[in-house]
Each structure stands twice: as C-alpha cells, then as structure tokens.
Amino acid sequence: MTTATNRHSDRRISPVFLGIVAVMAVTGWATWTGFAEQPGIAVFLFVTAAWVVSLCLHEYAHARTALHSGDISIGAKGYLTLNPLKYTHALLSIVLPVIFVIMGGIGLPGGAVWIERSRIQGRWKHSLISAAGPLTNVLFAVVCTAPFWLDALDGVPADFRFALAFLALLQVTAALLNFLPVPGLDGYGVLEPWLSYKIRRQVEPLAPFGLLLVIAILWIPAVNGVFFDVIDALLRALGIDEISTYCGQNLYRFWTETDQFCGVSS
C-alpha cells in the first residue's frame, strides 16, 4: 500500500530546484574564471541563485525534521522535493526575500512549511523542528566563510571572494532574524512549546505580523545601526571584514555605479 512515507515521487528532487542549482554553478564558475563580460551580472545571478537554494534548504530542514518527528503528511505536501514553489506563497516565500536582498542586503526569512503539530509528541521535537531552518543558515554561513577563517584565500579571485562575503552576510542576517523570539519567526517557535497555554493564546494573534514588526523596527536608524554592528562583529569573528561585504554588495548591485575602491568593474 502506498503511503505518505514511502511514495518515491514525494521525495524526488524538483527540476525547478535543480535548475536553480545549475544557475548557481554556472554563474559561480563564470565569477571565478572572469568569463563573463559583465562580472556584476554573474555575481548577481550567482548570489541570488545561492540565496534561493538556501531558502529551499532552510524549509527542507524544517520538513525533514518534522517527518522524523512524526508528521508523515510532509511528503504528500511536496516539502521534501526542495521545490521553492511548494513553500507556501511564491511571492512571500521567494520573491519578497530576493527583493529585500536587492534593496538592502538583508537575508529576510522566507517561506514556511505547514506542519501538523498534533502528530508530534514532545516539546523538544517541536523546538528542534523550529530550530532546524535557521541552523541551516548557520551551516551555510560557515561554508561560505570557510575560505576566510581557514586562511585559504590564495588563488581565490577577488570577485568570487566578494560574492562569498556578501552571501555570508545574507546567511548571518537570516539566521539572526529567524532566531529572534518574535511570534511568527523560528526563534519563537523554539520557545513556544515551553510557554504556558495562557501565554501562547495571548501571543498567537501577533504571529502573522511578527515579521512585519521586525522589518518596521529595523527601519529605525538607531536599531538598524546596532543590528548591523552585531552582524559585522559576527562576520569579523568568521574572518570577513566590512570591506569584503561592502564590495560584494556593490558588485552584486551591478546596475549602480561601481565603487573603484573595490577594484571590480561593472
């Protein structure tokens, strides 16, 4: 008998995801080799594709953890295929986070998977499901920054180095924002199982607006300054200086005037 746990098609990697990975690989190669006549375009496509891949892996981590915690409905919903179109609304899950990357260089939390929590027993399992997504961003950030903190940058082209630095910035901001204990974000999901029923009921109506509240607060100059000071400190601890992230974003935004200080051409 075919069930939600053993249908092979429920776990087959989506061609959409494979296509995005292919774009990331080709444009990463073009950035490394300098093959592209317009390196900024190659960096833009490389970082954007890598960012969408990380969004998919973030949601896949939630889904996979939920599956192993008892929610066998996950597969039938398509969450194990890594298809970005399966993670709730395509506009809110993929397009909006990409727009925020373009506008401000912030790794905005993206999609979400619908988990049937009633199938899952144990508070630790619920917390782990929520933590799995941002922990994926942490892992992605570690991979992106590895050449920096391993002091393995010899032979790495400047354009590719800057692209990795900017991508690391996005992953660190995404992890930090997701771990905030704000209703609607993963950080609150980690804490929620340990809160009283009364508190959960009082906070529940705020969940749909949690992310909007965070975005609004980040528009306050003083808060924005503190937020990016924390991000810069974390990146420095991982071996990335502000110049690299600045030049990565400058190169990524190829439609703007290139800062000659970065030594890259648009």
Low-confidence stretches: 1-5
Output the structural class: mainly alpha
Number of continuous helical runs: 10
Main sheet overview:
none
From the spread of the alpha carbons, the general shape counts as globular
In whole angstroms, how far apart are the ends? Answer: 58 Å
Mean pLDDT: 87
Estimated radius of gyration: 19 Å
Written as H for each helix and E for each strand, in order along the chain, the element string is: HHHHHHHHHH
DSSP, total strands: 0
> How much helicity do the residues have?
55-70%
Beta-strand percentage? Answer: under 5%
Family: Belongs to the peptidase M50B family.
Membrane topology: Multi-pass membrane protein
InterPro entries: Metallopeptidase_M50B, Rip2-like
Keywords: Cell membrane, Hydrolase, Membrane, Metal-binding, Metalloprotease, Protease, Transmembrane, Transmembrane helix, Zinc
Main attributes of the structure:
10 helices; 266 residues; mainly alpha
How does this structure look, described?
By secondary structure, the protein is mostly helical. 61% of the residues lie in helices and 0% in strands. The protein has ten helices and no strands. Helix 2 runs antiparallel to helix 4 (123-149), helix 2 (39-69) runs parallel beside helix 5 (158-178) and helix 4 runs antiparallel to helix 5. The chain is globular. It starts with 14 loop residues before the first helix and ends in a 14-residue tail after the last helix.
